Amino acid sequence: MEGKIAIIATLDTKGAEADYLRQLILKRGHRPVVIDIGMGGQPLIPADISADEIALCGGAEIDKLRASSERRKATQTMTNGAIVKVKELYEAGRLDGIIAIGGASGSLVATAIMRALPFGVPKFMVSSAVSMPAMCGGFFGSGDITIMHSVVDIEGLNRFVANTLSRAVGAICGMVETKAPSLTLDKARPFVAITGYGYTEKCAHYVRQAVEERGYEAIRFHATGAPETAMEELVDRGLFAAVIDLVPSSITHAMFGGTRIAGPQRLEVAGRKGIPQVVAPGGVNTFARTTDEMTPELKARKHYIMDERRVTIRLSAEEMTKSAVVYADKLNKAVGPAKFLVPLRGWTSVDREGAPLYEPEMDMVFVSELRKRLKPEIEIREIDANIEDPAFAQAVVAAFEEVMRMKEASKT
User: Fold this and answer.
1) What is the secondary structure of 140-208 as a DSSP string?
2) Which of 40, 189, 200, 274 could form an SS bridge with 282, CB 3.0 to 4.6 Å?
3) Domain range for residue 237?
4) How is 101-113 classified by DSSP, letter by letter?
């Protein structure tokens, strides 16, 4: 079956390369749609959707953008315009996949466009800038984007570039040709989102199995920032029937300069939409830095070194109080059933009794402040266990069953 594949490129610099992609996609039996996002000059080949049309969709004229000295603003205008256009194509059933080529700037623009498309739409970026650590995370963001490192600059159709682009076309065409399972919300087997990370792995594993035994399909999200942002976006799209948020600690990281930071809507979307949620404080009492970032003040605190990239650091009493205020404010936005479960014997596997970060009296500083601020509709339930103990996982599953019943009862 023919698929419609958008090609994103700056045709003023990469016209020959984009045309090569177009010809290969045609040979594979698919329909290419070339979209020009170039601002440097006239295109080297015709586009199906011109840079002028993209600029107009972004609210400007291409000639003015080309003459502008405000490069950042002009780039954002073209990005916005392209997002409008690809969404139009997708909603009209005229886009089944998207591929782009570029260096650092082109990759930033193209992947921003890709992230505007829903999860599950094939997205393939061929970039010469993947090896730049400061850039690559910005390419992915919270999108399900496949990125190929071109190694060589995408400049001219030498055999290295042609080899790379040929394999890229095989990849995007294969994605489009593949019949993937539907991601619509299935009432017979609803999706349940679960967050977790290494320090709560046993709990998350048990909860996933128990939820699936009860007829749900559990989807795990690694609590490292971007995956949590993706989870919130998918919850906002109405794909999930419930959220079991074992590790909402990216909020703490955002407050105190940690390494795991998600978007500003973290811990708010499910509540705003009335979706049942069970929340635990996995990792909420800590934030992380690299070994190079460990100041004398941080070294004086309780901390646990996993490796040179990950040092887990305990919050102070003042920080625990401040973070409780933020968590309470976010949870209080919930209009649906929600419960907050507290494991009294530690919130990660490395702060149980005898472990490096064990400090239960400090955890209660957070709990005490949360109790003062959390609205009465949200129960705080204390469990005499560590978060990794079977007893706590069982309590999470029991609370999940309760919020689901509460949701059903509210419909009658």
Assistant:
1) HTTS--EEEE-SS---S--HHHHHHHHHHHHHHHHHHHS-PPP-S--SSS-EEEEEE-GGGHHHHHHHH
2) 200
3) 191-411
4) EESHHHHHHHHHH
Handedness of CA 120, 124, 130, 135 (dihedral sign): negative
In a domain, 202, yes or no: yes
Q: Count of domains in the chain?
A: 2
CA atoms of 332 and 186, how far apart (whole Å):
29
Query: pLDDT for 323-347, tens place per residue?
Result: 999 999 999 999 999 999 999 999 9
pTM score: 0.84
Amino acid 250 reads S
**Ranges of the chain with pLDDT below 50:** none
165 CB burial (10 A radius; 0-12, 13-18, 19+): buried
Q: pLDDT per residue over 191-234, tens digit each?
A: 999 999 999 999 999 999 999 999 999 999 999 888 999 999 99
Q: Are 55 and 78 in contact (CB under 8 A)?
A: yes
Give yes or no: residues 143 and 198 share one domain.
no
In the block, tokens 């046993």 appear at 202
